[in-house]
Amino acid sequence: MNKPSFTPPNWVFAPLWTVLYIVIAIIGWRCWVRDRSSNAMKWWFVQIALNFLWSPVFFGAQQPGLALVVVVAALVAVLAFIAVAWNKDRLGAVLFLPYAAWTAFATALTAGVVTMN
After folding, report:
1. In this structure, what are the phi and psi dihedrals at residue 19, rounded to the nearest 5 degrees?
2. Distance between CA 30 and CA 54 in Å, rounded?
């Protein structure tokens, strides 16, 4: 499979995702404690489900086109979480910004794979 020239080296992914998942978990906990039925919590669950789905679709099923649909939906869910959480949990929303940036970058990487293969 051909990869875009801006693909980071493999060693970047494990530490980056470790930090992101820790932050995602902390923010999910904050939302859960604050209001389990909030819109922010609903968007948190949507984004984590889509996040989980991307790897089996991209790597397992080897369907980069479908993985692109999943990652775009994940980006929308991450941005929706930030928008909904902004007024009630500004810290949580701000801490999701690096995750949004990485998800946007992952969207570009996935789109690059789709166009190159």
Report:
1. -65, -45
2. 25
